[in-house]
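Hi L., both proteins are below.
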Amino acid sequence: MHTRTWTVEILISEYDDERRTRAEARLHTDARNPLRGEGEARRSPADREVPEIGDELATARALADLAYKLLDATAGDIEQFTHRPVHLTS
């Protein structure tokens, strides 16, 4: 059995004056340059200020973006070996 460890780093930036939170998810592996996903959350002026909710939503969106980019990278890797178009879905 061979075990690998991949690490996802989440960077969260809060912009209080714009009522917005931005998250960046970076996937670190031994095999490639880091892949990066981005997500954002915006708070309505009528909503209470609960920073954790913005952090969670922006992070979820960044991870979803990262997942789609990883699927695209995987399809590209498969195409290099098969020399045929590949369409992967989640």
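That was the first. Here is the second:
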Amino acid sequence: MNTKIQSYVMAAARTLMALIFILSGLSKIGDADAIRGYMEIMHVPGALLWPTILFEISAGLLIVGGFRTRVTAASLAIFSLATGAIFHSQFSDQIQMVMFLKNVAMAGGFVLLAVAGPGAFSLDARRGSV
């Protein structure tokens, strides 16, 4: 694959990976009280709701733009594993198992992004920090 096409494919892949976090963060705003309650049922302090929303949206946007990509991707990998372990650990429920594996797969993708970097079509590349 030539490098120009690869640059666009990397940018599209980053966007697809980040979309779930951006949309998840935005959806939490619309139903904040219910999400806070769910977090507390799962023994996560409700006070973490707004920092979580800010993290999901901002980290997603950083990945889309390819800015501080390696550290942001590593952070999202850790976040994906942690939230999977906390919210999707009922492995006797097949849906929860699939949700957990979705988080594991996302973490794998973000680890790969952290290692490979954002590609040439990114703010990191423009800054010379790929």
